[in-house]
Amino acid sequence: MRKKAFLQNVLLRGSMVRKMPIHRGKIILILAAIQLAMFSSAVQALDWSQAIDAVSEKSDSYWRLAEARGLESRFLGTGLNELHVVEHKCSILGRMLERINYITPVELSTEFDVDNADDQTTAIAAHSLDNWVYQAKRILDLDRERRVKEWNLDCVGQLGIPLEAFVGEVSRQTFFDIEGKTLRVLGDVGKDFSAALLEAINSSPEIEEIALGSGGGSVYEAIKAGQTIRRLGLETTLWNNCYSACTIVFMGGVNRRIWSPYPELSFHRVSIRGEAVDDYDPVYSHIAKYVYEMGGDGGRFVDFMLMASPSTFHSPHPDDLCNASLATWIQRQCI
User: Fold this and answer.
1) What is the distance between the alpha carbons of residues 228 and 253, in angstroms, rounded to a whole number?
2) Which of 69, 146, 205, 217 has a 20 to 30 A CA-CA distance from 173?
3) Using CB atoms within 10 A of its CB, is residue 274 exposed (0-12), middle (13-18) or buried (19+)?
């Protein structure tokens, strides 16, 4: 049966940019509806390419309009580089994974009066569309398993997307992708994770940074992985949200940086088969000792863990992460 999806009502809302009031009010733009006929993967790819071209043309038209209204430069400042990146990513992933019914909060729309907008507001709208294009191109190149992992990790339970929007994963495979001097890790910290990480690092002697995205996993595999990262003198950063045992791996970096749009570094209690271990279990002492050895405040690290049950998460304020030396630098937040 023919299935149709529409790229429409994409929200460009400045108020959703975290801690960044960027102009005099909300920016809300409704994209022209772009029909995506999804007969097969080949046709789907073709239709997304057409959608990308259409949004690019819309962006160009707004840039030209902004310039006609007096815009002197298309450089709007680094504070807008990641404008709506998370919202666009989740909207695109939701459509590609047939979770359209769940992304309404992300794509809520009201009229954007482009006819009466000033040059700056028009330019910001154009810039957001450029970010949509970037995300669409990036996600289009991913296979389904990687799309699913990003959706579950970065979108489900956030931006108003309910937990029931979770997509079952065919495999528990963790991906290790090399891009220049960065090794990107996406997936669980499972059995033999530390050995697989070392193998991936050894495959490219130019690697200087480990970019993490994970829902967590084994505490002891995470510690081994973090120790390996430190022994090799590598840095860590976040590529996607980093939960649970992933925070332990993150601590292995000589420098531990978090870039905007600020993927979450989130903590919770250690559990065995879903049941929280006792607060005085030796595992917490082991974790604290490791964190101290990595240059962080092990006591605060464990405190953050104990602030959430095994089924919830605690995401500390950036200042708290820096003050406890858990992150060594957070863009525009703390150093």
Assistant:
1) 9
2) 205
3) exposed
pTM of the model: 0.82
**pLDDT tens-digit readout, 79-106:** 888 888 999 999 999 999 999 999 988 8
Other residues' Cβ atoms within 10 Å of the Cβ of residue 109: 16
What dihedral do alpha carbons 54, 12, 98, 41 form, nearest 10°?
Answer: 30
The ranges assigned to domains in the chain are: 4-154, 172-330
CATH number of 172-330: 3.90.226.10
- Cα(41)–Cα(318) distance, rounded to whole angstroms? 41
Alpha helices by DSSP H, 141-244: 144-154, 193-202, 219-231
Q: Residues of the chain with pLDDT > 90: what percent?
A: 72
Q: What is the mean pLDDT of residues 157-177?
A: 92
pLDDT in tens, 283-315: 999 999 999 999 999 999 999 999 999 999 999
DSSP state, 134? H
Burial class (CB in 10 A: 0-12, 13-18, 19+), 235: buried
Give residue for tokens 């405190």.
Answer: 303
Pairwise CA distance, residues 6 & 28, whole Å: 18
Contact 127, 137 (CB under 8 A): no
Nearest to 206 by CA among 233, 180, 236: 180
* pLDDT value at 227 more than 60: yes
What region does 78 belong to: left with phi over 0, alpha with psi -120 to 50, or beta?
alpha
**What amino acid occupies position 242?**
C
Burial class (CB in 10 A: 0-12, 13-18, 19+), 334: middle
Pairing between β-strand 4-7 and β-strand 34-37 as defined by DSSP bridges: antiparallel
DSSP 8-state assignment for residue 307: T
What is the rounded CA–CA span in Å between residue 8 and residue 265? 32
